[in-house]
Design goal:
Length: 676
């Protein structure tokens, strides 16, 4: 009998001895912000229940501190008192309606705590935090170990199947285990046996408190990616000690938060770090979990089939699609709403102390608030514009039972996404368009491409509602010579593929300016060449150096001289995404792109771009000037029909033109679809 399971390794059970996981999929820990919201645990219960219903094998919650000093922020979540237990029961009861197991992550942030009561191995301030920690005394170390054990017992009483002890990403236990942050001279510092003592003693204390039949995951940093990180021999030594102390599973941690190496952004190759988990396979006998940028079932299956790990962790892919596992099991991978690694609605939100959600799935963390119930009164709706806003509205509205007709003048769906997907490092955008295309088919949206609409065509068809998602037009700045033959718009480059010279000035250093610069300098996308990417970011796959770091490859060859310019005097790219902006800036820096702020544009002529900088007039002799100076809403057709009394709605860039904000566009389309 042949095995017809589409992903036999991924979907096979994992026997832990005292319990069995239904498959090899671990939903990794994500802080959502709901942990701190009023009534947030009821919303968290709905969030985790949706993923359990989707058949994920094991869920790990967002980080919860075992004591006050370990909290992420002053009002951060903590599990240390008996009265904390009941609110967690709402989560475990919801998840246990299904075969899924759930573990509580115990996270002591150490010097990453954003409050003045932070503690660490030594009193060394983190470069990403204004608060300097106090060094833990011997007595406080022992009380911290007891706090972890006590929280684990409370988690067990709350119905959790286990805990994950966070020992990586530069948090407290990792701060003890590495020389970078541990300068102690007592038995908790010095040798690896001393530095790893905190993590080992925590596992021992937790195991003693909860007994044998309780999952203990230890998240071990296999790649610190910082100076003063651990050597490979030290990591293996710690892994073996953690196993001996009573861990059930070891989960892979990749990089400290202060590391200057991207680990989960769009531009990181898929499964870029599973090689390091494979390196640990065979050194310990407990199951190992590979993680980071595993976002589709074929990628996960390959990781397992090639022996890189025993399980795979996917965190944000379950923000993007709670039914990931069920769709994979049904052989419907094309129906998966793929995580594109953008960070815009998840990590960026969390670091701005807002609720996390997902750019491609605005329902994530809003399961009780943004719903798409069948409508009792189906309407005949026309949608004009098949960019992200129009696609989202069309799919959700049709899902509710409305009859939706979608028009676009272009020959393919996607709008501005079709230009973004060409930028090296943004190949994942293809997946979003593939998903939307399937959703249009599944929900019977009547799609008309190459179909421009006007007032007469829309009025004569008798639609109940008109939804305009007509996007934006590039803004043309008022610069003398702006119509010179040297001048190109970003659409000329990314859409029409007009030839671009060797020396280029880019006017405007927002997201589009950075995209165009990247498009022009990256001859080959590093995202699709894992070894080149690892080398470019200085990652030592041979592990010859502590922290697995090598000098960054600054010699990235290209044949253009590029100037990225902006009027603002602030740092170029200062308004890019909070967690990814530094990656884009470093990428262009490594490609020797010249970044010039504080520019006043005077003229474009045969010589090139005439500008002034700090009062001094300059001439930049360039072959082309590429304009990326913002957008203007394309809302004229909406205004005409609204003035004629039609039932009109305006969404996406046509409503607010703001740096091609797909996050806002998709959410706005979804919210309108939920209420129309």
């Amino acid at each position: 009998m042949t095995n017809t399971t589409p992903y036999p390794h991924l979907l096979s059970p994992l026997d832990l001895g005292f319990t069995t996981l239904q498959n090899r999929v671990l939903m990794g820990s994500m802080h959502t912000g709901l942990e701190e919201e009023p009534q947030g645990f009821k919303k968290l219960a709905a969030f985790y229940e949706a993923r359990a219903k989707g058949d994920v094998g094991l869920i790990v919650t967002g980080g919860i501190s075992p004591n006050f000093r370990g909290r992420v922020a002053p009002m951060g979540s903590e599990l240390s008192k008996f009265w904390h237990v009941n609110k967690h029961k709402a989560i475990t009861d919801a998840v246990h309606k299904y075969p899924t197991k759930i573990c509580l992550q115990l996270l002591h942030t150490g010097r990453y705590a954003y409050h003045p009561f932070s503690v660490s191995a030594s009193a060394i301030k983190a470069p990403i935090n204004p608060f300097k920690p106090k060094a833990l005394s011997e007595r406080k170390i022992h009380s911290t170990i007891k706090d972890f054990a006590k929280s684990s017992k409370l988690a067990q009483e709350a119905g959790y199947d286990g805990v994950e002890i966070m020992g990586s990403e530069g948090y407290l236990i990792n701060q003890f285990s590495c020389k970078r942050t541990n300068h102690r001279t007592d038995k908790w510092g010095g040798s690896i046996e001393n530095r790893m003592r905190l993590g080992v003693e925590i596992v021992k204390a937790v195991r003693e408190k909860v007994g044998k039949n309780f999952i203990i995951i230890f998240r071990l940093s296999l790649l610190d990616l910082v100076e003063g990180g651990n050597t490979w021999d030290e990591i293996v030594t710690m892994a073996k000690a953690i196993e001996a102390a009573g861990a059930t599973i070891i989960n892979t941690g990749i990089g400290w938060h202060e590391a200057r190496v991207p680990t989960i952004a769009t531009s990181v190759p898929r499964a870029a770090f599973t090689w390091v988990t494979k390196r640990l396979m065979g050194e310990v006998n407990v199951p190992l979990v590979a993680t980071n940028r595993i976002n589709m079932p074929d990628v996960a299956e390959r990781v397992l089939a090639e022996g890189h790990s025993d399980m795979v962790s996917m965190a944000r892919p379950f923000l993007a699609d709670p039914d990931f596992v069920n769709k994979a099991a049904a052989g419907q991978a094309d129906d998966i709403n793929t995580c594109i690694g953008c960070n815009q609605a998840c990590l960026d939100h969390v670091f701005e102390q807002k609720r996390a959600t997902c750019l491609v799935n605005p329902q994530a963390c809003y399961e009780t608030e943004l719903t798409f119930a069948k409508t009792p009164e189906p309407k005949n709706i026309a949608v004009i514009g098949a960019g992200p806003a129009g696609l989202a509205f069309s799919c959700y509205a049709a899902q509710r039972g409305h009859k939706v007709t979608l028009f676009d003048g272009a020959s393919e769906i996607g709008g501005q996404f079709n230009y973004a997907k060409q930028v090296p490092g943004k190949e994942e955008f293809f997946e979003t368009l593939r998903y939307f295309k399937r959703q249009l088919e599944e929900h019977n949206v009547d799609v008309h491409l190459d179909s421009y609409q006007d007032v007469e065509s829309l009025r004569t068809r008798g639609y109940d509602e008109l939804v305009f998602a007509t996007g934006i037009n590039p803004r043309t700045p008022n610069i003398p010579g702006i119509n010179h033959p040297k001048v190109l718009s970003y659409l000329d480059v990314l859409k029409h593929h007009q030839p671009v010279g060797k020396k280029v000035a880019i006017i405007g250093a927002g997201g589009i300016g950075f995209d165009v610069a990247t498009y022009l300098v990256e001859q080959e996308s590093l995202t699709t060449n894992q070894q080149r990417w690892l080398k470019a970011w200085g990652i030592d796959t041979e592990y010859q150096n502590p922290g697995a770091l090598l000098p960054i490859d600054h010699d990235l060859k290209h044949d253009r001289e590029i100037y990225l310019m902006q009027r603002k005097e602030t740092k170029v790219g200062a308004n890019l995404g909070k967690t990814t902006g530094w990656i884009h800036r470093n990428t262009l820096k490594n490609h020797h792109v010249n970044m010039v702020p504080g520019v006043h544009y005077e003229q474009i002529n045969d010589q090139g771009l005439v500008y002034s900088l700090q009062g001094e007039k300059k001439v930049l002799e360039v072959d082309n000037v590429i304009v990326c100076a913002g957008q203007e809403s394309n809302d004229s057709l909406y205004q005409q029909l609204k003035d004629l009394g039609e039932n009109c709605h305006l969404i996406g860039g046509a409503d607010v033109a703001a740096e091609l904000d797909a996050k806002r566009a998709i959410r706005q389309g979804a919210e309108l679809a939920a209420t129309i």
